[in-house]
Amino acid sequence: MTYFLFFLSIGLITALALVAKQLQQSKNDHTLAQQRLKEADKRLQEADQKYGGVISREDSVRELDTQIIVLTDRLKQLSQQSDIEEQEISAKSSALKAKLQGLEEREIVEAFGFYESKYDFQEAQEYKQRLDETRAQQKQMIKDKQAAVCNTEWSVGGSAKEGKKMTDNFLKLVLHAFNGECDASVTKVKYNNVQTMENRIRKTYEDLNKLSQTTHCEVTSRYLDLKLQELWLTHEYQEKKYQEQEEQRIIREQMREEEKALRELEKAKQDAEREEGRYQEALEKARQDVESATGKAQQKLFVQIEELQKRLSEAEANKERAISQAQLTKSGHVYIISNIGSFGDNVYKIGMTRRLEPMDRVKELGDASVPFPFDVHTMIFCENAPELESRLHKQFHERRVNKANERKEFFRVSLEEIVKVVRETDAELKICKSEITFTKVAEAADYRKTLAEERQQSTQN
Question: Which residues, including other chains, have CB under 8 Å from residue 231's CB and lie 6 or more apart?
Fold first, then answer.
């Protein structure tokens, strides 16, 4: 028992020693771990102090990269949006330029208002007939449903019938819009906007067909051509009517001038016949008186008879001249006149009159239409005045001041050129019955007095 207790004590002590040794070892291991932990913590702090900035920059770089990606995407979106807006602005700019081009035509009509005729009919009635035919063709195209067409058979709710009804209504709407614009253009067409109205019709045609693309509908090009023909024919018909009216006005004016000249000639003839009768009676009476008179009284009667015979001869000559000029329907005076105060130098009116007193016609021209009276450079009596006037007008046609209205007989030409043509024409036709003399320098008295007064006023001021 004692040995058992001894051995038990020895074992217990040994066990306790082993446990104490293990506890010490564990303590040592814990202390070592703490030291290693402290060392690791210290090394971590040192590393953080040494490399913490690098780590922060890497984070910043990653953040910046992210922002760059976001901004790049945004830039692409803005670029795409800018391209779209640029295209829209370009389209609007083109449209505005087209409108501006149309508006500019009116401003530059003198230089750009020329219209090249598409037809060459001789009379207005021919234009009217062709215009009626063109409008009849348009009506037939509408009737045949060829003015506007749809290239797709649509259906509505599965019904082809309803689709056709919808298509027909849409085509009617398109044609109504197109015809309205065309009618407005045709109504407004004038010599100075033909191209503008043509562009307006073409633009309407393009816009309506563009809007109708989604439905596969369109106004046909043939119908457009007929509308343009209507525009051109309307314009040329108006121009031809105006020309014919001008020609009729010229004829009426010539007739009035002829009637006035004939009245003057008839009056001159009657006046000459009355004078002839008075002088004849006075002469007969003087001859009777001279038979019974003597001395100085008789001598005085002889002088009176001689004077009466002279006046009677003049009256007979005046009557014969009036009768002769009335019988010669083409005889008259061709005049060359100028008005430097109104029109400037080297501008001359070349006209003709059959008046017995041709200066009456010149005075009429200068009465109220111009601020200064005309100066006469020559007044040539011709047996065929219309021919001489016509030759001069044709020779200087390109030098007309007003090229749009040939009734305005003013020409920008030198007097020497006019003299040359007059002499050449007379040498060929032998029609001038009076001496061809010209006054080269215009008196222009009122105009020169006006200039003198203006200079005097300017000096006083």
Answer: 182, 185, 186, 189, 194, 197, 198, 201
Amino acid at position 152, single letter? T
422 CB-contact burial (10 Å; exposed 0-12 / middle 13-18 / buried 19+): buried
Q: Quote the domain boundaries for residue 199.
A: 124-246
Mean pLDDT check: name the lowest of 149-158, 192-201, 275-284, 343-352: 275-284
Q: Which of 214, 246, 278 is the last residue of a domain?
A: 246
Within this chain, do residues 241 and 262 fall inside the same structural domain, yes or no? no
What is the total count of domains within the chain? 3
CA 198, CA 120: separation in Å to the nearest integer? 19
Of 294, 327, 360, the position where a domain reaches its end is 327
Residue 376 exposed, middle or buried by CB count within 10 Å (0-12, 13-18, 19+): middle
Other C-beta atoms closer than 10 Å to the C-beta of 325 total 22
Is the domain of 141 the same as that of 219? Answer: yes
- Residue 289: CB partners within 8 Å, gap ≥ 6? 301
* Largest CA-CA distance found in the chain, in angstroms, rounded: 234
Q: Does residue 448 share a domain with residue 338?
A: yes
**Domain for residue 178, yes or no?**
yes
pTM, whole model, 2 decimals?
0.46
With tokens 């038979």, the residue in question is 291
pLDDT one-digit tens code per residue, 349-385: 999 888 777 888 888 888 767 899 999 999 988 888 8
